[in-house]
């Protein structure tokens, strides 16, 4: 069962379920039998081969992955589903919900320092063409929805190069977030808190993602309900999590874990009120975070010494 603390956070708010739409692919009469039209492009279907293939900034993870991937994922992968590696962060993409399962970052002081060569205003939200068109989210899904395109890997965490910050604007790194009172305020404060941890620790490892938590209805039963937006039915998470590990120069490790409801939160609400035991997030998300770190190696969890 989900712990009482996480259920309390879940009860902070929930989102409703709206209409569901599905896209479709159809053959044209003037096409040969083994051809399809997808997003206006004619694609030939060869037996034994996938019907879609392309190249973009994201690269599927391989065991011989780059040194940077090894640095980011030093303490283990939460899961191995549809992993994409960018230049400065790694994510697992949820093709059904069109949002990430999780996004992993490794931060240092250098990553967050002001860099005159980096200009966020030049970045555009862009679909990632390395994802099959059946499973992509599009900017049109967010238009008129009332939700922000919420970064999982925060743009402010990747200031080493313009390309790094631009890659955080791929829609694979986004999930629908309430704007006023959440994405632009409370969630932003949590992102700033994570950046401030680089003043305390030499290395900060951050895993971020969505949750879909249950809510007790009037009939006394528990249900998981969430809204979807756009023609591609992008899921609107009920909550979001961050699990953070700070690594000091002497190798000592501390962990913090947060769950925040995807709704307007009063400005005076302290970030610490959203701390939860990390194992409750693991159970709710179906993921194991930092599984290469034995609990005995952690000095503190959520500011309390580990016994």
TrEMBL record:
Pfam families documented for this protein: Endonuclease_NS
Amino-acid positions noted as binding Mg(2+) in the UniProt annotation, renumbered to this chain: 183
Keyword field contains Metal-binding: yes
Reported cofactor(s): Mg(2+)
Gene3D superfamilies given in the database record: Extracellular Endonuclease, subunit A
InterPro entries (UniProt xref): DNA/RNA_endonuclease_AS, DNA/RNA_non-sp_Endonuclease_sf, Endo_G_ENPP1-like_dom, ENPP1-3/EXOG-like_nuc-like, His-Me_finger_sf, Non-specific_endonuclease
Alphabetized GO MF terms: metal ion binding; nucleic acid binding; RNA endonuclease activity; single-stranded DNA endodeoxyribonuclease activity
Residues annotated as domain ENPP1-3/EXOG-like endonuclease/phosphodiesterase: 86-296
Residues annotated as the enzyme's active site: 151 (proton acceptor)
Limits of the DNA/RNA non-specific endonuclease/pyrophosphatase/phosphodiesterase domain: 85-296
GO terms classed as biological process: apoptotic DNA fragmentation
Keyword DNA repair: no
SMART domains per record: Endonuclease_NS, NUC
Record key words, sorted: Disulfide bond, Endonuclease, Hydrolase, Magnesium, Metal-binding, Mitochondrion, Nuclease, Transit peptide
Top-level enzyme category: hydrolase
EC identifiers of the protein: 3.1.30.-
Subcellular location: Mitochondrion
Protein name: Endonuclease
Source organism of this protein record: Papilio xuthus (Asian swallowtail butterfly)
